[in-house]
Each structure stands twice: as structure tokens, then as C-alpha cells.
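An instance follows:
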Amino acid sequence: MLVPSRRRLTFEVCIVLGLSLGQSAVYSVVQLLDKMTRAPLAEGTSTLNRSQSTREYFDLTYQLLDIIFALVPVLLVLYFLTGQRQAVPGQPLTTGPGSAFARLGFNFERPGRDLVQGLGLAALIGIPSLGLYAAGRALGITTAIIPSALDAYWWTVPVLILSAIRHGIVEEVIVVGYLLDRFGKFGWSVPVSIAVSSVLRGSYHLYQGFGPFIGNMVMGIVFAWIYTRTKRVMPLVIAHALLDIVAFVGFSLFGKAVGLG
């Protein structure tokens, strides 16, 4: 069994975050400063799913490419985690009790229980989030959030669902499963690991304002704490995907920007 040094693990974490959510956090801080120096946050907007072309099938292509390439850092994480065990002749690295999928609980080993837990978590997080968003808008610390600005094509809803699943996988696998594993290897305590993970989660939402930063940080604490108890990231992925599906698809079909105008 290969045990990477702390220096190597630190470099590894920097690479993963630099290619994914760490990069998003840096851009988010810059975007927040840009918005704050232009006008009060209450007058700003944050669009989550933008159209990338006025030509239907080019827009579809861009959307799908974004989703696919956003998942590459997840594959990198799974590779890093799987690469630490000895290969068993004739056994694929993506299966078996020693695989990264099993290690993170990112599999379909218990679909019924994961789904129930995911639904419960989505309700637990989703309802208070609406109140926090309204409070943030009232206090002027949150921009108007537009979950989808895609044109209405036949593929709009399926793409929004895929986008929601993408966000659930990327954020929960990397920010919870992977980082808590690595922070543990650093010798950090569970509370410190959860705190750093949750602050990172909040930071890459800062472009939406301080309300979403706080809300996502609280969500990160809850999700990370649950993961330390269950060692399964799949219920978190399900909950996150459900929250985003409701927001993206619901807005696309029925909504206008809440608090805008």
C-alpha cells in the first residue's frame, strides 16, 4: 500500500482545487468586489445557467461540454484516492471494497436509504434557504439570483437537470468526501476539517452576495457532519442535485428573478 507524504498530498489538494472549486472561489471573490464597486448588492444579479450561443444546437453543445469538463476534476479525485491501494490482478480499480467509489460511499450500494436521506436533507436545507435568501435581499446583502437564463428549447429542461446533477457530484465529492479525507491525512481535527470545507463551499458562492455565502457555509457544516457519521457522499449528492433541479427547472418553467424589479 502506497502512503503519500503530507507534502505530496498538499500539492495534490492544491492541484484539485486549482482546477475546480478553488478556482471558482477566487473568481467568486473578484466578481463580488466587482459588483460591490459598481452598485449596491441589492441592485445586482447573479445568473447561474447562461445561454452561450444564439444558435440552438451550438448552445446545446456548449452546455454539454461545460457539464462534461466540469466532471474531470472529480475523475482526478477518484483516481488519486484509488491510486493509493495496490492493484488486484483482474479487478478494475473502480470496483470492489477498496475503490474510491466505495471509500467515499459514492455508489449504488444502498439506493433506497440514500434516496430517503437525500430527500430529507433537501427538505432540511431547501426550506430555510428560501427564508435566508429573502432576508438577504431585504438586508441588501444578496443579489437577485436568476437560476436559469437559457432559451426555451426542447433540451432546456434535460440540460438543467444534468447541470444540477453535475453540481451535486462536483461539490459533494470534492468539498466533502475528498477534502475531509485529505484533511484527516493532514492530522486536522474533525471540527477544523468541517470548518475549512464549509468556508470553501460558501466562498465560491460569494458572487451571489453574503447571504448565499452564509447559507452555503451552514449547508456545508450540516453535510460534512453527516458525512463524518455515515461515510457516504451519495445522499449528499442526491440532496444537492434535488435542490438545484427544483431551483433550475422550476425557475425555467414558472419563475422570474425573485426580488428583481
Summary: The chain has one domain: 6-82+93-254. The radius of gyration is 19 Å. The chain has ten helices and two strands.
